[in-house]
Design brief:
By secondary structure, the protein is of the alpha/beta class. It has 5 helices and 10 strands.
Length: 198
């Protein structure tokens, strides 16, 4: 998606260690107009796919998922919580995931009343690197008996292989910007041109 790629080039910051900072528009300060265009593009790519829920993870995925949901007929957005809370009551689905950016493992939890075997789920998140967070979200769907129809990602760091591994298992992954290389010294990055596939 050229709009997102251009924004990454303009306002993204490449740092050493494979880190891309996009907090100016994606995961700290939110550009809602950009989110809306992203939601429209995911809706175009997943047209005809039955989606009854959008699943994401707190916190960075919530804004993107909520705006995107408007393009899927306003389906509910469920977000996995990263810590137990007194607000979480009743039966729950829980697993653990490893965060690339935080360099640690943490629990993720969804109340069982929000995911069911009747649900057809689109998972949406801001980043895909190694795919650990997505694996955790898919495990929650498996626990619920829900069907994962696909995954929508804003930015995929394709050089880290998570997306390729998911696709090799037959999971549909639609990433709006796929980065093939980043240089933490020069700040340069390169994108994969998926326009022929889209």
């Amino acid at each position: 998606m050229k709009l997102l790629e251009d924004r990454i080039r303009t306002d993204g910051v490449v740092k050493p260690g494979g880190v891309l900072k996009v907090d100016a528009f994606l995961n700290h300060q939110c550009d809602v107009e950009l989110f809306d265009a992203m939601g429209e593009e995911w809706a175009r790519r997943f047209a005809g796919v039955p989606i009854t829920k959008i699943l994401t993870i707190e916190a960075s995925g919530i804004g993107i998922a909520c705006v995107a949901a408007r393009h899927f007929g306003g389906v509910p957005v469920v977000f996995a919580k990263k810590a137990p809370s007194i607000n979480l009551d009743g039966d729950q689905y829980a697993t653990t995931i490893y965060s690339f950016t935080k360099q640690r493992e943490y629990p993720v939890i969804v109340g069982s009343r929000f995911l069911s075997p009747d649900d057809h789920v689109l998972i949406i998140d801001d980043f895909l690197a190694n795919g650990c967070a997505l694996e955790g979200l898919m495990r929650l769907c498996d626990m619920a008996g829900a069907t994962v129809e696909g995954i929508g990602i804003a930015i995929e760091k394709a050089f880290q292989g998570g997306g390729d591994a998911l696709r090799a298992r037959g999971i549909r992954v639609e990433s709006l910007a796929r980065i093939s290389a980043m240089d933490g010294e020069t700040g340069e990055l390169a994108f994969i041109d998926d326009s022929a596939e889209a």
